[in-house]
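Self-study notes.
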Amino acid sequence: MSLLHSIYEAGVRGLLEMLDSEALLALARTSTNNRILPLNSSEAIEIILLHTPDLGRFFSYRRLSAQTLFLYLHKYQVPSMGFANKNQMIMAVKDLWEKQCGRKAVSKPTTLKRRASSDPEIESPKGRKGNVSSGRLRVASTNTDKTEDITSTDRNKSIHSPSSTNAVRSLNRTVSGTQVEKNIANDDTESEFDVTPFAQPIVSVIRSDDFTRDFCEWYFNMVNRLQPVCAHHIGDTFREDIFYSNSFADIYFIGHSCGEKHAQGRDNTYALLRETFMAYSLLFSPNLENGTQAFKSDHGLVKICCCGTLHHKNALVGIFEQESGLVCSPVDRAWKIMYIKINLKQSNTLCERPSLPPCQLFEIET
């Protein structure tokens, strides 16, 4: 079984045609475990289609980056809301292909559970499966209130995230995209629901290094679009609502003259970063290969570190080091920025590209 002659062939072929020759040749070698070396891009696409058994395997290829998926969705005018990670974009692409095939949109999206792999091009997709069954579901009302304090590095900042869940009885109810109809019993027994079918909530899991690269690629592309020279690039818009209302920013200037700037609150944080980048016409080139790190606190805050080179138009002017604190919002499950600390180091010479040592990998639920 392969994607060749499957209902997804046209969509997969169109996505592959957006990749450059180097990426296609690498994917072809990966799909055949280096047993076949294609001569050109057309042959590489045919090899990938023939030797890739399903979409799960296809989307696990590392060469299919979040940026590539974003550009593909943009080509077909599929909107991307805020910071969509790679898993969410995969779901959107699969939904698009289902609609193009004249089938119903995917109600249970593909979930990739990424683990460390010896092959740099591929990771094994393992979704968290919910127990799907038809039967009777008893519903009981519960109320819980929890408050967690998350302390950001070098600052005593607390995030209070109260959450509450209530099971509401109604004649019609949707659970995880599945319509649930209530049967009202005529006797004195406890009310029950018919579940047709009922699925446990799906949790997408992404590996920390992929999450970090996706975020850095999204963030710095968005920041670079502030400059007129990069305004034509496809990407998201730098705006206030990617920050929490109590977020903060620290900027440190290191060079011939040193200084620092600080801001507290969503609007001030956004304004400080935007005004600083615009005033110095800064462009960022993050080292996505070996210049990123991710660490997770016990309370769920993910700290992302990234370094790279600083540019002013066509001139190299220095390097940067940035630390970002991200917290997943319980309201819409979107990751928002809690804080940003960035060092802007002026340098006219650069012996080697700045990098960071490897760190321990972990899984992030999205």
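Second protein, same conventions, sequence then structure:
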Amino acid sequence: MGMDIRNIIYIFPAIIIVLTLHEYSHAKMSDLLGDPTPRNRGRLTLNPLAHIDPLGLLMLMLIRLGWAKPVPTSPIYYRDRKRGTLYVALAGPASGIVLALVVRIIIVSGLFRWTGIPVQFFTYLYFYSLVISVFNLLPVYPLDGSRILQGLLPGNRGYKLVQYQNQIQVVFMLIIFLANRLLWAILNPIIGVIDFVITTAVGLFF
């Protein structure tokens, strides 16, 4: 789904909603696990201004891949540091998948007509919910997937990856800017599978 400048009125709020929910979910999960850091840093909020990164937002508008401000966390507060890190990392992408499911129901059931909001908005909201969730599942720092991998690897192997995170981040940023098509070649099949599962599940009821 390419960006049509005429649809910017739908695209912009859709991206803001997805990014805000994504980062809030990280903050909420960490808070539930006993970490006061997100709350103390003002990130336990649905106010978009607390979460939006201007460059990441611009990238999403231009090339459909971007990011928000990472939520600061302190895993030392978790009872199980590895498991807590995993849960917090999963919370963001999971929120996007759930949002996509809800939006799909709104579209297919025709509930969007009751909102008075054009279906185009919900279409973009669905699209970016999937894109941002899948993009963040890539096991590359600073995306959520790197922390998910960190939580899944046995022993201290996951934490050993941290020492290379700066180099990995530089390379990944170069790929985003210079090899955007390569990333989409990876993302599109995954997005397609999740879209198929959601569409099929919703189709059983509507």
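Instructor comment on the second fold: DSSP finds ten helices and no strands in the chain.
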